[in-house]
Amino acid sequence: MLKWAIIFAIISLVTGLLGFRGVSGVTGTIAKVLFAIFLILFLLALLAVIGVFHIL
């Protein structure tokens, strides 16, 4: 998921440099949403691992 967020961020930067503001805005939003989902899932996994090792 992080890979796709980085890809969309790069596409957003390139299209922004070329002047395609609509495409740049959409891909930037997609990159932000994917990164937020990745961050939430990462934190949940981290809490799950900490919880499992705390029990042991």
Please report which band the strand proportion falls in: under 5%, 5-15%, 15-25%, 25-35%, 35-45% or over 45%: under 5%
Structural class of the helix and strand makeup? mainly alpha
Number of domains: 1
Residue stretches low in confidence (pLDDT < 50, at least 5 long) are none
Mean pLDDT: 94
Secondary-structure element series: HH
Radius of gyration: 16 Å
Biggest sheet descriptor: none
Shape: rod-shaped
In brief:
The protein is an all-alpha fold and 56 residues long. The protein has two helices and no strands.
Key words describing this protein structure:
mainly alpha
Walk me through this protein's architecture.
It is a single chain. With 56 residues, the chain is an all-alpha fold. It has one domain. 93% of the residues lie in helices and 0% in strands. It contains two helices and no strands. α1 runs antiparallel to α2. The radius of gyration is 16 Å and the shape is rod-shaped. It starts with a helix and ends with a helix.
Give the SSE map.
Layout: H1 2-18, H2 21-55
Helix pairs in contact: 1-2
